Amino acid sequence: MTDFEHHGIMAEPSSTDAGPSASSSQNASTSTDQAEKTPVVILCIGMAGSGKTTLMQRLNSHLHSRNTPPYILNLDPAVSHMPYSANIDIRDTVDYKEVMKQYNLGPNGGILTALNLFTTKFDQVLAFVEKRAASVDYVLVDTPGQIEIFTWSASGSIITDAIASSLPTVVAYIIDTPRTTAPATFMSNMLYACSILYKTRLPFILVFNKIDVEPHDFAIEWMHDFQAYQAALDEKGRDEQGEMAYTSSLMSSMSLVLDEFYNNLRAVGVSAMTGEGMKDFFSAVEEAKKEYETDYKPELARLAEERKAKAEEEKKNQLEKVMRDMTMSEGAASRRKNPFGPHPRNEREDRYLDDEGDDIDSEEEREIQRQMEEEEEMEHAEDLDAGDMAEPEPGAGGVAGVQSQSRTGMSWPTPR
Ligand SMILES: Nc1nc2c(ncn2[C@@H]2O[C@H](COP(=O)(O)OP(=O)(O)OP(=O)(O)O)[C@@H](O)[C@H]2O)c(=O)[nH]1
Ligand SMILES: [Mg+2]
């Protein structure tokens, strides 16, 4: 991919130094405490148009006003206007329109492939983030508009796992509140959030955005009061005949299933537009960070330990297999080389080789013996036939010469 190679991310984008992180390094130099702190990574995930990018900008300006500028990553290759300046921008590396052309893909395929290409270099991205980790409090990550491109793709998982295994990470699931007032849409959104939570297993925050347009109280009520949700379904979920629609009874059952999920969730309401709810959002992030330390990190360590043990076991098995193969091939080679000799390493194989050697030995010897007997017989018969014949002239050669020499016990002459 020429464009990708051309744009390579070998050097940190220049905006990094000119942007917010420049002041963050100043912060680091002014405070010795800050050198030891660990930032928290906020992964902004949400349906298309839910307000991820606008919220990123709001968080960025809020943090700047608190004198704690964040480090920003943009993973959306298709964003045309970004209201903030990112420290690392996927668009500096991959041009998704070029990817679409080169790979003959549609817009979503182009975005996915661009993300895949970017993921191949994510170790370098992570190295940049880690380098700044000591000097920032927050790392903000914007994700592609098509949620499934990030949440259900291999590259999305790789990126999430790589970040989460390096720094405390929380998922901020952004919801378009005004578009969630229908009970069925609300349930679809909750199911999606639930699936992401169980997929990533990371501390999770439900962020009801756009509360300037529609307050999120109804959503909180539906989450904590099954009856209230049921009442909303009763009111809005009936068909023209007044019958409970099929989807409504499904939603009703689902809300009972999700009860456990709701109980363990943090939910906050914000407005990326007005900045309302920022305090609640950051308190939720702090709580989630603690949860990362107490729940996710030990689990991560346990998994890492398990993986290490598995890898060790695998390595041992492979080594044993190689040793076995080597012993077998050495045995075969030594049999080929010296079928009669003892094997220096393996007693059992010794015996086998000896036995086998004996077999070959006796067989070959028998053959040689047979040939010698035949020759002797022939010689004897010839002696008898040639008994009356005159002794040939010395050096006469030919068969007569051979016979003559043979009789005198001399070596066989070279045939002329
Ligand atoms: N009223 C209001 N509008 C908002 C708010 N947040 C975002 N918007 C609007 O919602 C629209 C989508 O916002 P974006 O930030 O582009 O949403 P996004 O999730 O990044 O969109 P994609 O990346 O395309 O998925 C824009 O028109 C924003 O102005 C909010 O808090 N209140
Ligand atoms: Mg966006």
UniProtKB/TrEMBL annotation:
It is found in: Cytoplasm; Nucleus. CDD domains: GPN1. InterPro entries: Gpn, Gpn1/Npa3/XAB1, P-loop_NTPase. Residues 403-416 have a biased composition (Polar residues). Residues 352-366, 373-391 have a biased composition (Acidic residues). Keywords: Cytoplasm, GTP-binding, Hydrolase, Nucleotide-binding, Phosphoprotein. Residues 1-34, 327-416 are annotated as: Disordered. It comes from the Eukaryota. Small GTPase required for proper nuclear import of RNA polymerase II (RNAPII). May act at an RNAP assembly step prior to nuclear import. This is GPN-loop GTPase. It comes from Kockovaella imperatae.
